[in-house]
Recover the amino acids of this structure.
């Protein structure tokens, strides 16, 4: 469990690598905060999706409430950073009236409010679920989280392209589910028998999600970069190239796991600790990709 805390520094490390690759291209200062927000939102999505993976899995309402609360806090911090960037001042010097004007008059602020409301509602409902688990359903958390995660890519830089909003939203949701469900399994599964049942099911999900992430990412990248040369000559292209290389590594790792880990775990021939170590390793690699992707989204 404690090794999963490395998701935070490793995700931030991915953002740092992307910042270095950006070179002279401007990167907005909220990139590290966005990494944390994206990872938290994906974790909430994964935890809420676990009952869909198996009816025997009950929602971990306490964990959902805590992670969703962190997600909402990061989204609020994102709003502050974005407002200070638009106003042209530091986050510390941002005035209340300036912040209010950003929220009410700028489309980015209005989208940010919607995302903050969505993440806050998920946190509040999860806290209610912790108090009254008999009256709460994880499906509601799953729907609200998915809609909230899709809001930013729908209105991002790809929204100006034909079908760009749809591709961006599908890409973000597939990546969040791929990462979030595996992280949720690592957080909650503790026995050999549970891994034997749940890992093959997740593997089938992961196959579809990884294919979706790859296809939508290729289309989005080609449209945004415009050519092969730009992959080396622009900061955006270099970050995209690094993300693509790591994604290829994840796909190779996934294929290796499907042949070496999943069948053995499904036959009860691997102890829970070994399965957990493999899940944590993949989650940490994904965290680096999330760091690159979050910084890519705020790179000019």
């Amino acid at each position: 469990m404690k090794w999963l805390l490395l998701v935070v520094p490793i995700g931030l490390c991915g953002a740092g690598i992307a910042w270095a690759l950006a070179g002279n291209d401007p990167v907005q200062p909220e990139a590290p905060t966005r990494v944390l927000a994206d990872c938290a939102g994906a974790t909430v999505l994964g935890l809420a999706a676990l009952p869909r993976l198996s009816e025997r899995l009950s929602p971990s309402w306490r964990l959902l409430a805590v992670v969703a609360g962190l997600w909402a806090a990061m989204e609020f911090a994102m709003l502050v950073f974005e407002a200070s960037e638009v106003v042209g001042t530091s986050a510390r010097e941002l005035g209340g009236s300036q912040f209010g004007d950003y929220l009410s008059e700028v489309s980015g602020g209005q989208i940010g409010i919607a995302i903050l409301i969505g993440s806050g509602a998920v946190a509040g409902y999860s806290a209610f679920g912790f108090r009254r688990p008999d009256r709460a359903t994880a499906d509601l958390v799953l729907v609200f989280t998915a809609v909230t995660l899709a809001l930013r890519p729908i209105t991002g830089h790809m929204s100006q392209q034909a079908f760009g909003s749809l591709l961006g939203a599908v890409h973000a949701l597939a990546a969040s589910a791929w990462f979030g469900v595996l992280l949720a399994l690592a957080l909650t599964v503790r026995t050999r028998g549970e891994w034997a049942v749940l890992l093959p099911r997740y593997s089938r999900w992961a196959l579809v999600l990884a294919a979706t992430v790859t296809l939508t990412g290729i289309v989005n990248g080609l449209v945004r970069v415009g050519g092969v040369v730009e992959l080396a000559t622009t900061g955006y292209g270099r970050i995209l190239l690094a993300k693509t290389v790591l994604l290829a590594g994840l796909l190779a790792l996934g294929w290796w796991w499907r042949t070496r880990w999943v069948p053995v775990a499904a036959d009860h021939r691997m102890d829970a600790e070994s399965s957990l170590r493999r899940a944590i390793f993949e989650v940490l690699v994904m965290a680096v990709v999330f760091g690159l992707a979050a910084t890519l989204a705020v790179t000019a």
The chain has one domain: 2-294. Residues 209 and 239 are 22 Å apart (CA to CA).
